[in-house]
Amino acid sequence: MARDMSDKDILKMEIDQLQKEVKTAREPVSKTAKELCDFVETQSAEDPLIKGVPEDKNPFKEKGGCIIT
Amino acid sequence: MAAQEVQPSETIAKLKSESEALKTKLEEERAKLHDVELHQVAEKVEPLGQFVMKTRRTLKGHGNKVLCMDWCKDKRRIVSSSQDGKVIVWDAFTTNKEHAVTMPCTWVMACAYAPSGCAVACGGLDNKCSVYPLSLDKNENLAAKKKSVAMHTNYLSACSFTNSDMQILTSSGDGTCALWDVESGQLLQSFHGHAADVLCLDLAPSETGNTFVSGGCDKKANVWDMRSGQCIQSFETHESDINSVRYYPSGDAFASGSDDATCRLYDLRADREVAIYSKESIIFGASSVDFSISGRLLFGGYNDYTINVWDVLKGTRVSILFGHENRVSTLRVSPDGTAFCSGSWDHTLRVWA
Question: In 10 A of CB B323, how many CB atoms?
Answer without folding.
Answer: 17
